[in-house]
Amino acid sequence: MLNEIFNACETKMKASIEHMQRDFKTLRTGKVTTAVLDNVKIDYYGTPTALDQVGSVIAQDATTIVVNPWEKNLLADIESAISAANVGATPNNDGDLIKLFFPAMTVDQRKESAKQMRGMGEKAKVSLRNDRKNSNDNIKKLEKDKEITADESKSAQDKIQKITDKFSAEIDTILKAKEAEILKV
Length: 185
Description:
This protein is an alpha+beta fold.
């Protein structure tokens, strides 16, 4: 029963880190990624549809994204959806493709992205602390119900703290690497 608590705690903490890393994909770093268009939806025959479902979305180089719709009659819809999403670049429609030219990031924009990234890291750490608290509460309940001794409870809570420390250190390592990536010119 204690092993179940330890495994559940680790699983939840891994999920917190994965969620943080998914959030990082929405941040703009030195080079542009197609993830900045993930939340852009167009009206495709009455259904809100992601851009990558109606055409190819490719990062051509560090500052350019090309959207090539499979149906050319969607060009105007895609162009207006990207404009409305305010992704940081104005769509350029050449009749076949839509190109987005993202300007190089300024130092202030890089610092703002790093600040957002640290906020995402702090949310992940709060999630870790909540997972630790829930696991410790479960352990204390077992002790209260006389299913484990006080010594077993103390050692189990120490193990939960070690698991928390391990994942917290992993978050710090990821944040340090991501911050270096964002601030690199």
